[in-house]
Amino acid sequence: MKKLSARRRHPLAALVVLLLALAATGGLYAAFAPAEKAQADTSAQSLAIDEGKKLFAVGCSSCHGLNGQGTSDGPSLVGVGSAAVDFQVGTGRMPAQQPGAQVPRKKVIYSQSEIDQLAAFVASLGPGPVVPKPEQYNPSTDPAKNAADISKGGELFRTNCAQCHNFAGQGGALTNGKYAPSLEGVDPKHIYEAMQTGPQNMPSFPDTTMPEEQKRQIVAFVRHTENDEPNPGGLTLGSLGPVTEGLFGWIFGLGVLIVVAIWVAAHTTKAKKS
Length: 274
What we know:
Blueprint: H1 2-8, H2 13-32, H3 35-59, H4 61-64, H5 81-90, H6 112-125, H7 134-137, H8 143-160, H9 162-165, E1 172-173, E2 179-180, H10 188-197, H11 212-227, H12 242-273
Antiparallel strand pairs: 1-2
Helix pairs in contact: 3-6, 5-6, 5-10, 8-11, 10-11
């Protein structure tokens, strides 16, 4: 005991304890900290941003400016987030062919990896909505849960979306040459991103306004309407509504009846003369 007490009083005892503590802390940190993975992720992200900046300079800067600050020909992209880039470029709307009231969907000219790089660069300009993960927009694998999502999604769609996109998602005309596009064949991820970012004439629905679960429910309803919705009345005529269906009936249905009546009358007259 006297020897141990003497060692504790040694002038270098505190220094030895401190060095042992530092060595133990360093060893634990080296063992458990994902330093290499974090460094690799950072390097990959930096590379994506650099490549995206090159693509942006060639294909986007003429309208949006070299640093995405915007010009008289295109808005600023600072703060729009990666989701806006993934939607606009992933649906072929950007780069735009020509200015107009609304930029239509067209063939995509960039690969998905290039779109990811452009999105990484624009996201580095300022925080904004991020590209959603598959579990955020894909329907549930549980049939009961999916059916509930479709039912609730139908209510949400009719409340928030049908005024412009039509009750069946077939789109509709707006003012001054603008229009709400059809949702037929649109990737579920892009539907979700459109609600996140509010492209062109569409209002945005951030999570504070429409939670993630409600967005997924709307996506489930749109996909169900396109793929699985039965049509007990027969031909849907594009599901454009009663006005279009009534007009079709008057023009084509009544027109056919008039032609048949004229044909019958003409042949009856010929029969009487003969």
